Inverse folding.
């Protein structure tokens, strides 16, 4: 699997290309690119992050099982949007509205991201994350193991 830098570079360059193809940033602008890139970068790896956090708990079977369960449930191209898509879409839509009002975001028409747009960006980020993971996955056929 590639590291976080490759995920971030791939997502940001893909988002910039989509923004350019969409023409002017109204359909896919920097705001969309940030949500897409964040979910392609960290999104499905939240399970691995939870597993890492569980490693700091006292070494008990319950802590290890909780970390393994989080990794198995979230680190999947379709389970991540299905399990965390709606809560994260609501959070991102709320953050979009708050940050736009505070002047921290530059949206072309001053329009915030809807929950539907956020959910679709979460799903797209998850799929592009796993596309990159599988692109760099070493096959057993190639290595002879």
């Amino acid at each position: 699997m590639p590291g976080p830098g490759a995920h971030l570079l791939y997502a940001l360059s893909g988002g910039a290309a989509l923004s350019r193809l969409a023409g002017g940033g109204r359909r896919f602008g920097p705001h969309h690119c940030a949500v897409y890139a964040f979910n392609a970068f960290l999104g499905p790896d939240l399970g691995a992050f939870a597993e890492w956090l569980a490693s700091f708990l006292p070494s008990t079977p319950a802590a290890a099982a909780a970390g393994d369960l989080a990794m198995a449930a979230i680190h999947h191209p379709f389970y991540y949007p299905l399990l965390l898509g709606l809560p994260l879409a609501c959070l991102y839509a709320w953050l979009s509205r708050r940050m736009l009002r505070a002047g921290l975001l530059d949206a072309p028409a001053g329009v915030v991201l809807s929950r539907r747009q956020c959910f679709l960006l979460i799903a797209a980020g998850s799929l592009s994350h796993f596309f990159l993971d599988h692109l760099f996955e070493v096959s057993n056929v190639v290595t002879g193991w």
